[in-house]
Structures are given as structure tokens and as C-alpha cells.
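The freezer alarm interrupted the setup, so I double-checked each line after restarting. Inputs confirmed:
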Amino acid sequence: VTQNPRYLITVTGKKLTVTCSQNMNHEYMSWYRQDPGMGLRLIHYSVGEGTTAKGEVPDGYNVSRLNQREFSLRMESAAPSQTSVYFCASRNASGGANEQFFGPGTRLTVL
Amino acid sequence: GQNIDQPTEMTATEGAIVQINCTYQTSGFNGLFWYQQHAGEAPTFLSYNVLDGLEEKGRFSSFLSRSKGYSYLLLKELQMKDSASYLCAVTDSNYQLIWGAGTKLIIKP
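Predicted 3D structure, all chains:
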């Protein structure tokens, strides 16, 4: 699973996009944010091309599942509260035993 | 609500054994995962339990008791490279993963 960019510094109100791609033909892809002292929190997920669904903390974020491989995360107007580390993950959709594979993370700072 | 609890931080000595506990309350249960996360890196898969009992994989073992809503990760013969955070996650009735905040394990020589 790859993510771009790995590091991003922006200012309040700017629009930004983080891209994610996987080559394992996984149906399920997701975006998480990770903040100190908190567990991974699900932002949005997708169970296949053209589908998206809200997770635990979707406000302020949009996603697009462009095809089986790619799942992008957008912030239309970045806010300091969105400063965090973002992980993309993918897995096979069927069943509960399928491990998730994570991208390397995108460290975002909003000034 | 759904909740997963694990200790925030633990310290152990190189060569020793450490047990990291995880308790959970979720809407349904379809398995429990343990992941390892080194500082500044992505989580990586360690183990999966869906039935009660102990699963052993080299120096690492994971135990599950569904009736008690409890799991532990046992690390033997600790090495300095085991210094990391260990994340417990439960798959709920909708096959969504609920994550604990993680346990930071510090290994001292």
C-alpha cells in the first residue's frame, strides 16, 4: 500500500488531497487518523469501486474510490484540528479474519 | 458504546517475558487482532484470534477468552527491537475494526 505525500504542511482553509494505492486486488480500503493517546479512528471506507461509507470521524473529509486500486482522501478546507497522521489500509472484504495492510502514513500539519 | 482497554505503557527487561492485556466491549465479535507499530511507522499484523485459547507464533503468543472479553499478547525472550506500541483491535458485528489506544512497550537492557 502506498500513500502520497508522506509529509504535508499547509495552512488553514487550504484544499488538499492524499492519494492511496494498493496492488493486492483488495476490495476493502479505508482511511484512518491516528492521534497521540488515541486509537486509530476510521474516517471513511470503501467496499469496492464506486462505493464509499462514513466511519467514526467523517466530518471535514471526503473520499473517492476511483477504481479497485486507488482511494483518495480530500480536505476541502483544512483546519488545525486535522493535524494528525493519516493511514490508508486495505484488505479482502470477505469475513473477519483478513488482516489489514497499512500504507506508510501521511503526517499532516495544518497551521 | 464500544470500548477497548489496554495499558498505556509497560516497561520490561531484555530477555524477559511480558504480557500485554486487552479487554473489550463491542457490539458483536468476529475476531481480535494484535498489531505492532514502531514509532513513526505503520502498524503491522501480529496475530488473529477468533476462538478461545492460545495461538503461538514464535516468540509471540496471543490468548483469547470470549466469555470474559479478554485477550493478551505474550512476548518471550524480549529483544530491544520489540520496543514498539502494540495495538489490540476487535472486529465487530459489522466487520468493522474497533481499535484500542495501544500499549507502548519499553525494553530496557
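Quick read of the result. Chain A has no helices and eleven strands.
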